[in-house]
Amino acid sequence: MLHATDLYGSLMNIIRLHSNTIFKNMPRVVTIGAFDGLHLGHQDLIGQLSLQEDKLQKDKLAPLQRTLITFEPLPHEVFMAQAHIARVMQLRDKIRCLQDLDAIDELVIIPFKKDVLAISADDFVQKILIKQLNTKILVIGDDFRFGYKALGDYKLLEAYAKQGYFELIRIESRHLLGERISSTRVRRALANADFAQIKALTGREYNISGRVIHGRKLARTLGFPTLNISLRHRNLPLRGVFNVKAVSLDAQHIEYSGLANIGFRPTVDGVKSMLEVHLLGGITGDFYGKYFSITFLNKIRDEQKFSGIDALKKQIEQDALQANLYAKINKI
Known about the structure:
The chain has ten helices and 15 strands. It is α/β, with parallel strands linked by helices.
């Protein structure tokens, strides 16, 4: 069992689920899902955990452990027909966001592998929800499906609820401007670099966090040293050059204005998607091994392949001018 503490000191348990995982023997209010992007619809589900806990405490019943179950990797990344679908949020960022929400006590991560794929819906309910987690209240979305071949649905859960195993609460989807809020919609907004739409769908600015790693140091030779941010999952829907805000994830939480490129760097024959961030104002230092959160503010241009290094350098100079002007106007 791991413990995660956010920037403000809140604490939640993080547990990777296995068949022999032993949980504390206490009743739980549980929600389940991929929660990719943690949009406002997801937050409605999560908010219900605290509402139900408060309700039972008023009735002077035993306190409930607020538990969120998710999967890693995400289900669509396992099925070959859907593997091309980009993820909105890395696990690290999902954990940070859940900490900021401060609405759960326990995060249970199910490794989505072949043995999990083979679990029937009934076994999932009986062995995981009832036996391992002692679920007393289950909160689900209106499109939730689970188990082998996604055969588990609301009707199956309702049958268990009617037998008294747990109380079942179904939350309807939230809509914005007449369209359902979903991870697909957030993904589409990211692909279009529509950051205002992303904030409307999720309630926050879009950011990616990661550790600074060593790169080829080519940008340094061009006069624009960068933080190379490790991306564990490289299939992200965002591509191009952006104005960003970089915040160090340490005790100091220093904030910097930045110019970022996320993509494959075609001019230098890059083969892996990378996030590179140049800190404006001539700021340099030994940042290797440190963690940063990168917030995307607006898009400058698409990533493109230039005729050579000189042409690339000239374009970066233009990008930096735009980024400095943007930072000055917006007082970043």
